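Sequence in, structure out. First:
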Amino acid sequence: MVPIFWHKPPEGNFKLNFDGSFESQTTNGGTGGVIRNQLGTWIVGFACKIKA
């Protein structure tokens, strides 16, 4: 297992982290993300399905 760390943005800035996946055989996928401030406080997030 590889440890993953969140690096905070500079003070007064926000950071967007997002990811997604796709299964070519079913053409199903999804994506999601989160915006956080320099303290790591959740500002807004999203998640959605993708169908090609």
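Second:
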Amino acid sequence: MAAWTFLTHHAHLLLEVAKNPDALVQELADAVGISTRAAVSILNDLEAYGCVERERRGRRNHYVVHRSAALRHPTNAAHTVGELIDALTDLR
């Protein structure tokens, strides 16, 4: 049987960023189980959509999650990024 999960890599990376907004990209990638290159691509997607913002702090990035951003899929658009994070983590 092929391995699969209910959440996409985008969702997993978003949850990791919410848990550790000062993590290095490599740390985020390792936590999700993807390559650094894939993590950078996903972070770019999340930033372009407006649910994550990167702030430079010295030589590192700090990530801000915009919890009020709507989820992308039309069937979930009535829910926010914050609701997803709250449902799947204990970060409240």
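Remark: The first helix runs from residue 9 to 19.
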